[in-house]
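Example record

One chain of 94 residues, shown exactly as stored in the release files.
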Amino acid sequence: MQRHRIAVASNLSGKIGEMGFFLDQIVGVSRIIERKHVAQNYPINIELDRLNYFFSAYLNSIQAIKDACQTSMGANVTWEQIVSGNVKMTHLGN
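Predicted structure tokens for this chain:
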């Protein structure tokens, strides 16, 4: 189990990098949508599809980070704690 936790923890920085990448993509696509809207340049279906894709990937990266933290630290973190900003690690004892 310890070896598995170490492997998961070492992969964590990559997952954090993915989260940053997807957030950058969301910001970039949002700016394109804003510019096209101001210029009344429609339709924006392609951009909305890209925004949806990157937002979904961003949320998946958050879930992966949550899972990796739980596995590598042997702790339990709920979504309620994350949303409220009140994250308290409860040791699982594994």
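Notes: Residues 9 and 35 are 40 Å apart (CA to CA).
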